[in-house]
């Protein structure tokens, strides 16, 4: 029997949870757009773009991305939800009907909150590997997605995965990577969200662990694989850092030397080395991952999208600084010179620089031509008024995942009262900040 992963689905959201979450987000976000933001007005403007697409029988993803890139995540979520509630346009489903492409992936990322973006990329990687669309190993990418998540983020990640794909993430990992696989165990342990997050560490325990690592030889193992997995997935990053420092100070060699003696599979060694590098400096680790994505041929847009769009409200500023330090070149300059899609390039640079629009002097964004970023009425716009999403074939290239509408904002339509309530809070916060 052929092994498959469960495809995503459209599902209802929780209205009460939605009301509380929107209000909570308004108190946390620092909105970089004008205080006169009006989701109803701006949704109406997006409707005009979509109506032009209907008239021209083309869904122009460049135009949609151009429009979305001028808003932050919270604003985009409000606009798109109002678009569905008020005008019956399900933008997520419309975009999902498009063929796989970097521009499609980028637009979907702009319609998705960060955790859900990570979930979709995680599932896409598993699916691509299972269907033979990726030849290389995916475990390092899976670990990279998880490393920066807190225990609370991991809980949300698990919940989102189950809601989107109606399956256990652990089972999907074991289907693709193998049930007895050491790296399957490592990833599943990371997904338990059991890392100690309080400050402080224990030097005495760190010394004992460092000694056990040092005593490992090609013939003698003083610390078993399961214990190493527990240490790397449950100890706080400050405790891990103490272990590595003590080891290197006392024994005069990098901790990576001990990892190479413990494991003999190169991918296993690289995965644990990645965790070590992340522990030392997350921003340095991420900056190097960004560079690798930019140097791949073809360019790894999945990773670029995950870092630039998914980290914008988290640690993108630190990643940019580390990138400049490592490569003596600003990240936006590299993006300018290496990306060939103008609209994706514009969006990335707008996010990175927070001000520069490289297409400011290039006329309007709406084009109705026969470019690769547009689709005919049959493959995209037949979802204009649809409220349900049918399943599609597994992905053939690495985009953000496939067929599910977003639970967090696109499941159940929320009322105008909810929108107005959130928007009044939003305006109040802006007023207080201005004072």
TrEMBL record:
Belongs to the annexin family. It comes from the Eukaryota. GO terms for cellular component: cytoplasm; nucleus; plasma membrane; vesicle membrane. Residues 370-380 have a biased composition (Low complexity). Gene3D superfamilies: Annexin. It comes from Adineta steineri. One of its GO terms (molecular function) is calcium ion binding. The lineage of its organism: Eukaryota, Metazoa, Spiralia, Gnathifera, Rotifera. InterPro entries: Annexin_repeat (IPR018502), Annexin_sf (IPR037104). Residues 369-407 are annotated as: Disordered. Keywords: Annexin, Repeat. This is Uncharacterized protein.
